[in-house]
Design brief:
The chain is α/β, with parallel strands linked by helices. The chain has three domains: 47 residues, no CATH class; 164 residues, Rossmann fold; 123 residues, no CATH class. The chain contains ten helices and 19 strands. It has a seven-stranded mixed sheet, sandwiched between helices. Strands 10-13-17-16-19 form a five-stranded antiparallel sheet, with no helix packed on it. Strands 14-11-12-18-15 form a five-stranded antiparallel sheet. Helix 6 links the parallel strand 3 and strand 4.
């Protein structure tokens, strides 16, 4: 039996796969003669909630089918986690489409960075065909919303498909753009549910897709509850370090950095991260003890020791000068004020660390 909402075969075993419905719910609805929807479609229909999906070949194939009906795509990217949310898989997927890049959470960046500097940095990273397609957004403060609406309406189409990974601020942005009524829009031949929202004051529809889950961000290692606790709602914090050789810097319980350098002067660098992430400098031997004993209470994130039990850690080395930064997707980044610095990073296997062109100039 197939779900009438998405077309997936109903199944009772795996909630993470399409077509899942608890068996007792299936039996009850069958006995009552009610419509039998899978759990995901039920939540979509009755609560307007799109459950996240994995960024795998299965999902990409379904999204390709949906994309055929759209000329315009609104890709939502988090400026505080650029490397985690601007992804090659999505870039390849939307190739050939008209893409507007809505870069959210710019209000969380340090105020010393101007909007011109932010946009120039983004254009250099994204390399859009037209620079005006990169839009700076703060859903919290309403910045850039009206300008984005006008830009979307300027293409002479009546709809856009919205995509983005989880925790990127997609729902907050859509709520600013759209009127409240929500319609379910199942596309034939796919198991990808969409939410259709009408733009305020215009005959234009925004089709929201499920948030895409990833596995290579540091935040992906945390429970949903811990992610909500950690992820930022106010300006990023920053802490300056001027460590001696072989001193250890702990970024919560998820990363340990041993510092080395080949210059006479000690390096200076800043770590930009979220308000509730614990940054701690200590002796290298003390760091080992802290990572064994204080993860989940003093060293946050994770929010509990059980979240990192079973993780395998590995060491990677990075040399970073004043022209570059070291980004830890889903956690923050390091900006070098005086370098170069050699970071010997102990990180969980499977997450990525990215050396990138600097966003924050050294003298800032």
């Amino acid at each position: 039996m197939k779900c009438p909402g998405c077309g997936a075969e109903l199944q009772f075993d795996d909630p993470s796969k399409p077509g899942y419905i608890p068996f007792e719910v299936y039996e009850r609805r069958l006995a009552e003669g009610k419509e039998i929807l899978c759990q995901r479609c039920y939540r979509l229909k009755h609560y307007g909630k799109l459950d996240p999906v994995k960024l795998d070949e299965n999902f990409i194939g379904k999204l390709k089918n949906v994309l055929g009906s759209f000329k315009l795509v609104l890709w939502v990217i988090d400026v505080t986690d650029f490397e985690g949310t601007y992804r090659k898989e999505i870039r390849d997927l939307v190739a050939g489409k008209k893409v507007i890049y809505a870069v959210t959470k710019i209000d969380l960046l340090p105020k010393a960075i101007t909007q011109t500097e932010i946009k120039e940095w983004l254009i250099e990273r994204i390399k859009p065909k037209y620079p005006k397609d990169v839009r700076l957004i703060s859903s919290l403060k309403g910045f850039g919303i009206n300008s984005l609406k006008k830009h979307l309406l300027s293409f002479g189409v009546d709809k856009a498909l919205v995509i983005g990974v989880t925790n990127v601020g997609k729902s907050s942005l859509i709520n600013k753009l759209a009127e409240h009524p929500t319609l379910i829009s199942p596309f034939p031949g796919t198991t990808l549910g969409l939410l259709r929202r009408k733009m305020k004051g215009a005959r234009f529809y925004i089709y929201d897709t499920p948030g895409i889950t990833t596995s290579d961000r540091f935040s992906d290692l945390l429970s949903v509850e811990c992610q909500k606790e950690i992820l930022p709602s106010r300006e990023l914090t920053r802490k300056t370090f001027k460590p001696e050789r072989e001193r250890a810097i702990l970024i919560g319980g998820l990363a340990r950095l041993l510092v080395d350098y080949d210059t006479k002067l000690r390096p200076i660098f800043q770590i930009f991260t979220y308000e509730k992430v614990k940054l701690h400098e200590t002796k290298s031997e003390k760091a080992e003890q802290l990572l064994k004993e204080r993860v989940g209470d003093f060293l946050i994130p994770p929010c509990s020791k059980s979240e990192v039990e079973g993780l395998e850690f590995m060491e990677k080395e990075f040399e970073v000068d004043e022209e570059h930064e070291l980004a830890f997707p889903g956690l923050g980044w390091i900006n070098v004020k005086r370098g170069p610095v050699i970071f010997k990073a102990l990180i969980p296997r499977g997450v990525k660390v990215v050396k990138r062109p600097r966003l924050v100039k050294p003298k800032r």
